[in-house]
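Justification of computing resources. Each target in the renewal requires a structure prediction run like the one illustrated here; the chain below, 192 residues long, is used simply to show the kind of job we budget for.
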Amino acid sequence: MVKPEDVLSFWADEVGPKGWFEGGEALDRQVRDRFGEAWEAASHGAYGLWLTSPRGSLAYVVLTDQFPRNIFRDDPCAFSTDKSARAASKAAIGRDWDASVPDALRHFFFMPLMHSENLVDQERCIRLLLTRLPGDAGTLLHARCHREIIRRFGRFPFRNAALGRESSAAEQAFMTDGGYGAIVRGFQSASD
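Resulting structure tokens:
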């Protein structure tokens, strides 16, 4: 059975900051092979005991928020445990457990809020980054970009195909004009 430290040592030490957001088939396969069964178990309610400690909660959030995006890239299952991840994240943040983990990993407690298609969650993510992790300008930039997309569309258009949702004309134009990358470049230009 997978333990919290298995998840955290893999994510922090083996993958590390350079690999966290690059993705790619090699990483997707590695996550799927090592943690696919654990994710499946978590999706059916396993690993509740992990939620009784800061590091266990962080491992649960990574398992249910980050890993499915690798295991099920471009598939609706990539988002199927988002609600569980958000609940775990909010509970841990409410206990200030995010302050108990290294700064390099703390932002993963906030990622389920950034991945939410709810503007209230988006706003909370930004507030948390500003107050609890003020030195992480990169994550804050991406949080602001995610919030902007939710403000504009009320959802993430880049998920539409995977979720079988029809894109509006505005969403199609957004994707054609560079999508998320264009939003990031716009925010970067504004801060220069």
